[in-house]
Amino acid sequence: MKINQLTTIIIILIVLIIPGYPGNVQARPETIAILHTNDEGGARENLDAIARYKNELKDKYDSVFLISAGGALTDHDMIQAMNQTGYDALNIGAAELAVGQERLQQNRDQADFPFLSANIDSSGSYLQQPEPYIFLDTEKGHLIAVLGLIKVTEDGIPPVDPGILGRLRFTRPVQAASSYSYLDDITNIYIGLTYFGHANDRNLAEAREEFDIIIGGYSKTVIKNPPLINNVLITQAGSDTDYLGKIIIELDNEGQIISRDASLIDIKRIY
């Protein structure tokens, strides 16, 4: 049995069997805020404002998280700034890969948050295998899964210089997502964190209805009126942290989603 398959089975057993696991705490009605950015491009000047806003929301909502769909241009200074801002996860995008495997691994080691990708296979490479997803535990005992996916071109690789990829191998995003459909069954909220453009996000929603929300990047689309495709809410927040995405999710006392509302905040409004 492959190690990742064994790990998956262990996680499922923890979630479903062990009473003390946070995801099995007696859940209560809850309102959750998911903040998101993408294609930050190394822009750090707005991160202090985002950190303050995130902390302010903790007085208004039960649980608050901050995630990036990728494209952060993760040099040392950007990683430190994202640490201080309180990011909970980063999807590996083209900008993350473009720095090369050694630098990418160094950035991962410096980060206080995981770098995600479910369709990168780094077996035999310098880069350590990325986590495909992360579980986020809410304050009232609910569980959120966030799955990371990167664009794969017709050539079978992401849109970066092939020379930096070495032995890295890639799976088509929809195919990779199908291997993790069980996450919908063991969590209250299932989020796809993607880096392959809004049109492909819509295609993913059509193909994989288990997602509750898809938060995208790569196309740098400013989505002020997020569409609902196949009952999947799809959004994206432009680029360069000019906008901050905000998703408010309400859960009932059974942990079922009763509302999802996504909006974009002009970053100037939170200064």
From TrEMBL:
GO term, biological process aspect, one: nucleotide catabolic process
Under the heading InterPro entries, the entry gives: 5_nucleotidase/apyrase, Metallo-depent_PP-like
Show the GO MF annotations: hydrolase activity
Q: What SUPFAM superfamilies does the record point to?
A: Metallo-dependent phosphatases
Gene3D superfamilies attached to this UniProt entry:
3.60.21.10
Full protein name: Bifunctional metallophosphatase/5'-nucleotidase
Q: Which organism is it from?
A: Halonatronomonas betaini
